[in-house]
Amino acid sequence: MSPNMEATCREIARLAAASLGVPTTFVGNIPWQEREEQFNRGEIDVLWICGLPYIWNWQDEPDAVTLLAAPVTRGERYAGQPVYYSDIVVRRDSGHASFDDLRGLRFVYNEPRSHSGYNVMRHHLATLGAHAGYFSSAQPSGAHLDSLAWIAAGKADVAAIDSTVFELELDRSPELADVLTSIGSLGPSPMPPWIARGELDPILVSRLQRFLLAIHEDETGRAVLDACRIDRFVAVEDDHYDPIRSMAQAARHVRL
Length: 256
Prior knowledge:
Elements: H1 6-20, H2 32-40, E1 46-48, H3 51-57, E2 65-73, E3 83-91, E4 106-109, H4 115-128, E5 137-140, H5 144-152, E6 159-162, H6 163-172, E7 180-190, E8 194-197, H7 202-214, H8 219-226, E9 230-234, H9 242-250
Parallel strand pairs: 4-5
Antiparallel strand pairs: 1-8, 2-8, 2-9, 3-6, 3-7
Helix pairs in contact: 4-9
């Protein structure tokens, strides 16, 4: 998850504790990579994870995790489905208006295990037959919000940003719209899932899933979701993430 979602996730954890009658701790203030490692060690039980590491980490161990749900973001572009887009973001004063304008520019991405910021761009370049050298440089920033900061500061020219992250950041910092703009989008892609460790008590997992699927029906839960533009959670199956598998396969020979 992006840091601008942390407060929402903390509140969902608090509401889950009250609903399920179990002690719940939200693990924050550490990089998501460390949270993923803790999940793999059994130190974290529930994780919100990008679809790309989801398909990579457990493709040979389907019983190691249980898919709980995925968020549905409010907005016409999402059509009530658990999907998102990767917005192609540049400085508003750059003069760039389409993807064709981006050749030879400096690309920044959050990190190489991200579908929204990295893999989806490689897939798009694969569809263009551009397997290397499209951008003059490609550097990792560490996070979507850092990529936005790099472009705003002139340190990079373009990034692919998870649309839900970009929209929420524009909500919270409207002045950002004077500096940055999206000139298009790639996708849709399957929304990152909430997952649980496969070793967890299946009864508890089932109760947690029912809690997530119904949280929008509760007044307090509705307010928590509204704060980050989430309409509701819906159940998802593993094949929902097949598009990411296909895109990763098509992008395997593309170098940024």
